[in-house]
Amino acid sequence: MVALNSEGPLTADMATCTRNVWKVLSGCQKQLLSAGGPSYSAVSQVTPRTLPIRTYAAVRARKKDKKEEEKKKEKEEKKEKRVIDDKDRPKPFGKTAWVPVDDVYVKRFYARVVHSASDSINMLKRFQKLDFAPADQPVYVDLKLDMKLEKKKKVDPFVTTVRLPHPFKTEMNKVLVFTEDSGQATVAKQNGAAVVGGEELIQPILDDEISADFYVAVPDILTKILPLKNKLRKKFPKSKRGSVTNNISQALQLFKTGHEYMVESDCFVRTQIATLDMPSEQIFANLQAILTDVCSHRPASLGPFVERAIMSTQTSEAVWFRTESVLPKAAQTDEE
Hints:
Blueprint (H helix, E strand, L loop, with lengths): L7 H28 L30 H14 L37 H15 L6 E8 L13 E4 L12 E4 L3 H9 L4 E3 L4 H5 L7 E4 L11 H4 L15 H10 L1 E6 L3 E8 L4 H16 L10 E8 L5 E2 L8 H7 L1
Parallel strand pairs: 3-4, 3-5
Antiparallel strand pairs: 1-7, 1-8, 2-6, 6-7, 8-9
């Protein structure tokens, strides 16, 4: 008779239970992996999608009625703004545009507005009425010149006297004539010379006993009055200015009513051209005379001589203006 181990049936039952547990766990693991876990199989499990196929024709777009199109065109025309052609030049640095589109704008966002000469004169007259300023105040012009010439040369600063078509001074200029000829002295006195004489006038001028606005001399006496060169400086008679001549009558006509201006700080001309109470046409004529005389000191083939022009009065703001419309047509054709 075979003896049985007391633990035999127990171990068999435990093995059976363990096998059942492993079966259950393996089944759950398969379900979890197939539901949300990543797929490690080499074969792609992406199912091909079936795109919808349209079996009908597209609907044609409805044509807009002519009336609606006309209404839209009218609205667009009303909303159209003033078009400014800035294709040829770039936008100014730090500015919005060259010219403002609206009537009211912030001044610092746009380039400076340059007016015509006639508009500038009218603006100064309008400023005078709004400011309740004196009507007889002087009108000034400030010009910046391009003094460059060919081959690194420059135009020498000059002093010129021009005869204005409409003088604004109430008094005649005082003119002194140097001559030792009795006939020329008589002609000078007849034409309104304030003082006429020769070498005897040197010492009184050095002592400030005699003074004048302009000094005219004949060529024969020019070497004898050289001691006055340091005293008179820019007023000393020179042939370039027309103050050294034998035609004393013509010189007196120029200097008695003439207007003198000079180049300051190498390239600036600042001078009075009229008074504000004068008619606009007379102010324009005086401005034209001065600009024409200024441009005659440089060849027109080198381009425009005036780089910048400003007009102002004692109480008004400065108004920038264009000089092209002021210069005569002959001068413009020469510059071109």
